[in-house]
Amino acid sequence: MIQGQNKIIADKKLGNIFAGPNTDTYVSPLPSERPDGCHFGESVYTKVAKLWSDSLSNTFFSGSSPFIPSAPTGTRPGLMIGLDESARAENSAWIESQDPGAESKLAGFSTVVQVLDTLDHSSSAPEFAISIGPVPVLNGEATLWISSDPARDFTYQIYNQAGQEVLTASGSTTSELTEVPMNLSRLSPGMYIVQVELNQKVQRKKIVVLN
Question: Which of 196, 36, 44 has the alpha carbon at shortest distance from 129?
Fold first, then answer.
């Protein structure tokens, strides 16, 4: 997989693609940080985010070209992979063997999986695009960029990993590219979902806060 990624990075025709940190080399001293020897546990998210932050070197910034992606055309159904009752029963034995007591956590699992898996997608063609920086968020300050027609009302909500709304705000776009400052200083370190609603359309982005 890494060889394939490196091939894409080296393809000059594509351009503007850069390598992130090689997280395979991260050896955790705590079993909880990599419980199966491969995937990261929740307790190590902040450390992994720092690896990504450190990879944003002067070489990256001098060689990259920032841009706002244009809104795609056509229709793409949102991905729905939440566990229904039959899937929950079928998978409960495996889940319980990996994490004793995990079955009791599955009540909200379908919702969380659905939100995370539909990031950056909507059930119909979006009429706007969003970008958020810096990544990860440092010192509680971030900026949301909205690319859309001017004079459009929007709202944004921020959700934690439990699906709870922790922040909401609203405003109006003032140009084709509107810059919206976000004060995230009261959020605890961790991963969040930013959801932006504009003209009855929704876009989502995942962010990591390192306050």
Answer: 196
